[in-house]
Write a structure and sequence with these properties.
The complex is a heterodimer of chains A (151) and B (496). Chain A is mainly α and 151 residues long. Chain A is built from 5 helices and no strands. A two-stranded antiparallel ribbon of chain B has the order 1-2. The chains are: A mainly alpha (151), B mainly alpha (496).
């Protein structure tokens, strides 16, 4: 069996944990370490970083041995649309107001689905925007302008 | 009788109009999201979390709790009628419940599930009322060393007991602990891992982590793998089970309740594992095991009782020790903390109205759930026809609004998107996100207690083994770790 290292599930997971652990340990060197009796702010994170490195290495080695690959495809397309819709909400809300931000987020998020029916999505956007305005702006009195800039 | 006067206080709180309304809202919402596959209580509580800031503490926790145990009721409806778990904890109910529905016995299956759940919910609530004060009094004697070892035990157990690879679970706990480190260190005033970003100096918000990790990652996973949904179209006739059904279901219900109540208290197990373990037990002790999988009523009653009992007793460690056993309980704990309530054994003494009001509301909630789930089952079934392509954009929107409303800062929304990407990658790599959340919630507490314990012990780490209680927790932690490498335990985990 020729091992497929590029899509090896535990190899990727192990690498991810190793990178996070190394990053945590290296960054924590800027914080005073202290002693076991009087721990400085660097003690606990350095310890965690080290432990994570060990776990990461264990997972990585097991991945190379078992050769198990990631199940199914990577859902890059839905992930991209969903992430974009969330980022757009944050970007738009205080610039153009709640109603446009809500409509844009709903439509962009809907694009992540298997099928995109324009009429349905528009109807959903209208209904959910009205619902959100009623609940969040009038019900919970969140202080965002419906349309227009926050500044 | 102190218990009775406490319960009287609790019912006085729970029967106020406001709290009744929030209890009803919670269980109705819980049933709804329990019925809908792909929307779980964890995601819902994470989304509603910011809204609870606007409520007083008691109604907030009553509502959140209602969502959690209400979802256990709703989940069984979908399992029985659609052969798809509305809730992970109801997954085993599919096996025999759906077979009963196919044999035209959907009504009795639903009724059995609801009644078994009701029985288990009431017993579980009673256990909180009985065990809570005793355990709380005991926990008041805990020092920093005991808390450190107890948290270590809870974290290790949650990592090992959740489905999948135990080493990955432990690694996820550590990642969670590291996320908890971000922000100002309380002892030195130094900002850690803030990368010069002012928003990170305050630490990463709870909503950001929970919503990103669970809601965003889960929605993307659902979008990538969608199974066609086939709703049971037969007419629901004859809701009530026969006398024989009731007799057959009685003992499995009791056994399921007992098993579930034990599993609920254990870290990392929760309702899902308890219902599975109960089903296996019933199958093992049945006189005719071949009936299982072909519509055995025991296969509906026992797991449904187990997941409800576990859903209630899971509150015990969270309320009395301030240590959450599952990710959902971690959310509840965070909700209480953000309400300015010091969680732990002192909650019962400082806030008796909260503790006993919550318990009383659980009884009321369980009664409401039977009414909501039995006569109104047709309504919930109709909701099953709502397509997911309408649901998920709305969920994303609520996640965004919720995140933004915590700090009124778009940074939180961006960070949530980033954590969502991380969460999805981790799910794809089969790393369970629940231990990460527990690590993140307990992280600051663990560090503080660890530092304090070692300061008191003058830097001598043997303190964790010389104090008897702390030593017991440490031994338990080691036992769990050893069991992890034993092949028997590995086989059990794989089975879930």
């Amino acid at each position: 069996v020729k091992p497929d290292l590029r899509n090896n599930r535990d190899l990727i997971a192990g690498l991810l944990f190793i990178v996070l652990g190394a990053l945590a340990a290296v960054l924590a060197r800027d914080y005073p370490f202290g002693t076991t009796m009087r721990m400085g702010p660097g003690y606990f994170p350095t310890m965690l970083g080290g432990i994570l490195l060990v776990f990461g290495a264990t997972i990585l080695l097991r991945g190379i041995r078992s050769g198990e690959t990631v199940k199914g495809e990577w859902g890059v397309r839905p992930l991209a649309w969903i992430t974009l819709s969330i980022v757009l909400f944050g970007f738009l809300l205080d610039r153009v107001g709640m109603v446009p931000a809500t409509v844009v987020t709903l439509c962009v998020a809907a694009a992540a689905g298997r099928e995109f029916r324009l009429k349905e999505v528009l109807l959903l956007a209208i209904v959910m925007t009205a619902f959100s305005v009623a609940v969040f702006s009038y019900g919970l009195k969140l202080p965002y302008p419906l349309v227009g800039s926050y500044y | 009788m102190e218990l009775l006067s406490n319960l009287a206080l609790g019912f006085g709180v729970a029967f106020s109009l406001e709290n009744l309304a929030y209890c009803f809202a919670g269980v109705a919402l819980g049933t709804l999201i329990g019925v809908l596959p792909g929307v779980g209580p964890l995601v819902t509580i994470a989304m509603l979390f910011p809204i609870t800031f606007h409520l007083p503490a008691v109604p907030a926790i009553i509502m959140l709790a209602g969502i959690f145990y209400g979802a256990q009721y709703g989940g069984s409806t979908t399992s029985i009628l659609v052969n798809l778990p509305g809730e992970t904890a109801s997954a085993v109910t599919c096996i025999d419940g759906y077979q009963m529905a196919r044999q035209g016995r959907a009504g009795p299956a639903l009724a059995t599930a609801a009644l078994a759940s009701f029985f288990a919910g009431c017993v579980g609530t009673l256990l909180i009322a009985l065990a809570g004060p005793t355990l709380g009094e005991w926990a008041l004697k805990f020092g920093a060393a005991e808390y450190t070892s107890l948290m270590l035990m809870a974290l290790v157990a949650s990592a090992v007991m959740t489905q999948g690879d135990a080493v990955k679970g432990l690694a996820m706990v550590v990642v969670g602990l590291l996320i908890g480190v971000v922000g100002v260190d309380v002892n030195s005033g130094m900002a850690r891992y803030s990368f010069g970003i002012p928003e990170l100096v305050d630490g990463i918000g709870f909503t950001v982590v929970a919503v990103g990790l669970f809601a965003v990652a889960e929605i993307v996973t659902n979008l990538e793998t969608r199974e066609p949904r086939e709703v049971y179209t037969g007419k629901l006739t004859g809701l009530m089970p026969t006398a024989r059904d009731l007799r057959d279901a009685a003992w499995p219900t009791v056994r399921g309740t007992a098993m579930g109540a034990c599993f609920g208290v254990l870290p990392g197990t929760g309702p899902a594992l308890s219902s599975f373990a109960t089903y296996m037990l019933e199958k093992k002790i049945a006189r005719d095991p071949s009936r299982f999988g072909r519509g055995a009523i025991e296969g509906v009653a026992a797991p449904e009782a187990a997941n409800n009992a576990a859903a209630q007793t899971a509150f015990i460690p969270m309320l009395t020790l301030g240590i959450p056993a599952t990710a959902t309980m971690a959310l509840m704990l965070a909700a209480l903390t953000l309400q300015g309530i010091a969680t732990g054994p002192q909650v019962m003494l400082d806030k008796p109205d909260l503790f006993w009001g919550l318990i009383a509301s659980m009884w009321i909630g369980n009664c409401l759930l039977v009414i909501l789930n039995l006569p109104l089952v047709g309504l919930w079934v109709r909701l099953l026809t709502v397509p997911y392509r309408w649901l998920f954009p709305s969920l994303i929107l609520f996640c965004c609004i919720g995140n933004y409303s915590v700090s009124n800062n778009p940074f939180d929304v961006y960070l949530c998107a980033l954590i969502g990407v991380l969460g999805y990658v981790l799910v794809k790599l089969e790393c369970e996100p629940a231990p990460l959340l527990l690590g993140y919630v307990l992280g600051p507490l663990l560090e503080e207690n660890l530092r304090r314990a070692l300061l008191i012990a003058r830097g001598d780490p043997t303190v964790f083994f010389t104090r008897p209680l702390s030593a017991a927790f440490m031994v338990a932690t080691v036992v769990i770790l050893v069991a992890m490498v034993a092949p028997a335990a590995r086989g059990m985990r794989r089975g879930t």
